[in-house]
Specification:
This protein has six helices and eight strands, in the order βββαβααβαββαβα. The protein is α/β, with parallel strands linked by helices. The chain has one domain (7-140, 179-233): Spore Coat Polysaccharide Biosynthesis Protein SpsA, Chain A (Alpha-Beta Complex). It is globular.
């Protein structure tokens, strides 16, 4: 059921980063951060082509070293803090089409999620087919239940901080909430062009563990991811 479909993997990695400078190529657990995602994508049994979409020559050189293709550089207007990721993806699809390459489905794999595995990648692709979905997006259970959160008034009084039905309840008694974890965004190309978004009426969730859902945005995230990567490598072998 997958042989008749073509799958493109896009790894977005712009050169600028305010939260953690040059984070996409920082060394982590023995290799550049982006290398973890490149190796995962290249190990997939379904992805037909893996490209890195970047505006950086340095990222280009490192990506090619680890086996990814960088067929073009991202234009400056798509390499800003304000640029939307969907526009980056659609631009990449259009550029490849101009060169004669088209793909039925596109998987966006952010390099800031190095703990996803090739199994996650392939399982998400299989879910796309079994659900007859338009898109699949990875999520994980929230670390802190949103029912325990609220805004504070200027005087910091907590009189109405918790809703009445939540008070004196254990976490296990509350409904399970999930969040986007940033690891996998997968959709049919036609679905993306129609919705201009991965989230739509035919998008289904691929659930990942919290341990594999670290999304690196800060130095603390980076240290946690490195610790987990080194631990996983020692206990389970190199499944990336």
């Amino acid at each position: 059921m997958y042989n008749d479909k073509s799958f493109l993997g896009i790894i977005p990695a712009r050169g600028g980063s305010k939260g953690l400078r040059n984070k996409n190529i920082l060394p982590i657990a023995g290799k550049p951060l982006i290398a973890w995602t490149i190796e995962q994508a290249l190990s997939s049994k379904y992805l037909d082509k893996v490209i890195v979409n970047t505006d950086s020559i340095e990222i280009t050189d490192i990506s090619k070293k680890y086996g990814a293709d960088v067929p073009f550089l991202r234009p400056n207007d798509l390499a800003t803090d304000e640029a939307r990721m969907i526009d980056v993806v659609l631009y990449a699809i259009e550029q490849l089409a101009r060169d004669g390459y088209s793909y039925d489905s596109v998987m966006l794999l952010q390099p800031t999620s190095p703990l996803r595995t090739v199994t996650d990648i392939d399982n998400a692709i299989e879910l796309l087919s079994t659900k007859n979905a338009g898109a699949v997006v990875s999520v994980c259970e929230v670390e802190h239940h949103p029912y325990w959160s609220n805004i504070l008034p200027p005087d910091k009084c907590m009189r109405d901080f918790l809703r009445p039905e939540v008070r004196n309840k254990n976490r296990q008694q509350l409904p399970v909430f999930y969040r986007l974890n940033g690891a996998i965004y997968l959709a049919y190309s036609s679905y993306l062009k129609e919705h201009r978004d991965f989230i739509g009426d035919r998008t289904y969730a691929y659930i990942m563990s919290k341990e594999r859902s670290v999304d690196i945005d800060s130095e603390l995230d980076f240290k946690l991811a490195e610790l987990l990567l080194m631990q996983t490598d020692k206990t389970h072998g190199k499944e990336y």
